[in-house]
UniProtKB/TrEMBL annotation:
Name of this chain's protein: DAGKc domain-containing protein
GO biological process, one term: phospholipid biosynthetic process
Alphabetically ordered keywords of this record: ATP-binding, Kinase, Lipid biosynthesis, Lipid metabolism, Nucleotide-binding, Phospholipid biosynthesis, Phospholipid metabolism, Transferase
Keyword Nucleotidyltransferase attached: no
Taxonomic superkingdom: Bacteria
Domain DAGKc: 1-121
Gene Ontology MF term list: ATP binding; kinase activity
PROSITE patterns: DAGK
């Protein structure tokens, strides 16, 4: 089988491309290598591969899904990042040999929704802003030492010094929130932060979920953290939760987004939309 292997050597788990390639070839793969560079991704989308395999963390999956979508072929995942939230949410094996076997021999495919931002940036888990961006920056230098625990440490540090942000949130043209918030989460799978989740998001329902955590005391952030770790955050009575096909975020200048673990500047305004059933994922 002809494989377009898209790998991110910079992922938290330090992707060993050679190890992945050897494991894939053991199952009959003919491999062409690509990076996450924009030009390389464009070349991958013209490669004629029969299957796209991405080896990396959560931030690598959205761009690879766009390539698979363009080629009209399935996407398979070798999770080699730190959090691997997408893999966990979809039951993808975390061990490289097992993931490679599934990538090559898996016959079950699942249609998955794909989120898009104003910039065209694709995401599969969440795009969120507020305390989460501070947490991501705090966690980044700790990943190589602490692994997934770095996310918890980063969140604790962020909770001690981050400030709420003023925002206006609209869903399908209807304003649902206009005040200060600790965090705004727009979800496809809803999985993020090394084990946190919205709990209500479904990557096959054709809708984005948005949860707004209103500003309040720092002590109250403990309850927020518990809700995210247990997938019950949207059930907390003061959390604003809605679903829709288009989420508009009006944010202060200089605001950043945490998009599948990657921190990028937010658009002004930032518009998140959904492409239902955009790509096929190889699943167990």
């Amino acid at each position: 089988m002809d494989i377009a292997l898209i790998a991110n050597p910079g992922a938290g788990g330090s992707t060993d491309t050679d190890e992945v390639a050897v494991a894939l070839r053991a199952h009959g793969a003919e491999i062409e290598h690509f990076s996450l560079d924009e030009d390389d991704l464009a070349r991958a989308a013209r490669s004629g591969a029969e299957r796209v395999v991405v080896a990396g963390g959560d931030g690598s999956i959205g761009p690879a899904a766009v390539v698979a979508q363009a080629l009209g072929v399935p996407l398979a995942l070798i999770p080699t990042g730190t959090a691997n939230d997408f893999a966990r949410s979809q039951g993808i094996p975390l061990e490289i040999p097992r993931a490679c076997a599934l990538a090559m021999e898996g016959t079950r495919r699942q249609r998955m929704d794909l989120g898009r931002l104003s910039s065209g940036c694709a995401f599969v888990n969440v795009a969120n802003t507020g305390i989460s961006t501070s947490a991501a920056r705090e966690a980044a230098p700790l990943k190589s030492v602490l692994g997934p625990v770095a996310y918890g440490v980063g969140a604790l540090r962020a909770a001690s010094n981050a400030k709420p942000i003023a925002c206006r949130v609209s869903v399908d043209g209807r304003e649902i929130f206009s005040a200060k918030s600790w965090q705004v989460i727009v979800g496809v799978t809803g999985a993020f932060g090394g084990g946190s989740e919205l709990g209500s998001a479904d990557p096959q329902d054709g809708q984005l979920d948005v949860a707004v955590l209103p500003a309040g005391s720092r002590v109250g952030l403990v309850r927020r953290a518990w809700g995210m770790r247990t997938g019950t955050i949207c059930a907390q009575p003061d959390v604003v939760h809605e679903r829709g096909r288009e989420i508009l975020l009006e944010l202060p200048p200089g605001t950043e987004l945490n998009v599948d673990g990657e921190v990028i500047p937010a658009g002004r305004p930032e518009r998140a939309t959904l492409e239902p059933g955009a790509f096929e994922l190889v699943v167990p």
